[in-house]
Amino acid sequence: MKINRTIYWENLAEIEELQEFFQKDLPFFKQLMEEHIEEVEKFPDKTLDKFSKIRALEVTNGCTQWAFRRGDQECLSMEQTHECMNLVIGFMKRTELFFPSEGQIEFDEEEKAFLQAARLLYQNAFKNNVKDSKREYYAASTAQFIVFGHERMQRAMALVKQDYETLFSPYYIERGQKYIARYLRGFK
Q1: Cβ(124)–Cβ(133) under 8 Å?
Q2: Domain extents for the chain?
Q3: Using an 8 Å Cβ cutoff, are 113 and 42 in contact?
Q4: What is the 3-state secondary structure (H, E, C) of 121-157?
Q5: Which ranges of the chain would DSSP assign to H, the alpha helix?
Q6: Which of 100, 116, 126, 146 sits most deeply, having the most CB atoms within 10 A of its CB?
Q7: Does the predicted model carry a pTM greater than 0.85?
């Protein structure tokens, strides 16, 4: 569903992981983002709701995983970190979601293809070190936040907090919310 939004490029340029792409070739990075925005806007609101929930889970899980790898003082135990990862990666592999308060959330074939492509892009960027995949990943990721919008992402983050705070811990729920909030400041 196409919605006109104002993008604050200067706010996005302040996000650490985007700075490299803004500095190297801003016009190309903007073009990539705009292409991804068009791709995501083709999905109906119901699908965007589902996608936003999985993104909120992915980001929260990412915060726990990176903290564990860095050995942060607040990191969860190896067992807890592994449990978080298994939950989210399991959802991605099976292309389904489960929230105790909502039950099973399933995806149709087109939605599954989108999620599988997003997962492959992530793997190419961060596991396989495929050239230019990080730029593509961050353009796609930023575009998703823009299309999902403030309210939808806030609902998704509230749902993750409500249903999975005991798993991720209040600390990493908040870290995930803060990570997403940086992107939400990039548009209105």
Answers
A1: yes
A2: 9-184
A3: no
A4: HHHHHHCCCCCCHHHHHHHHHHHHHHHHHHHHHHHHH
A5: 9-13, 16-41, 45-70, 78-94, 109-126, 133-184
A6: 146
A7: yes
Three-state secondary structure call for residue 61: helix
Averaged pLDDT for residues 118-141: 94
131-145 exposure pattern, b = at least 16 Cβ within 10 A, e = fewer: eebbbbbbbbbbbbb
What the block records as the tokens of 173 is 């729920």
Tokens 């806007």 — which residue?
Answer: 41
Taking the C-alpha atoms of residue 122 and residue 25, their distance in angstroms, rounded to an integer, is 21
Rounded Cα distance, 163 and 154, in Å: 14
Sequence letter at residue 139: A
CB 5 within 8 A of CB 146: yes
The region, left, alpha or beta by phi > 0 then psi within -120 to 50, assigned to residue 98 is beta
Model confidence over 22-54: pLDDT tens digits?
Answer: 999 999 999 999 999 999 999 999 999 999 999
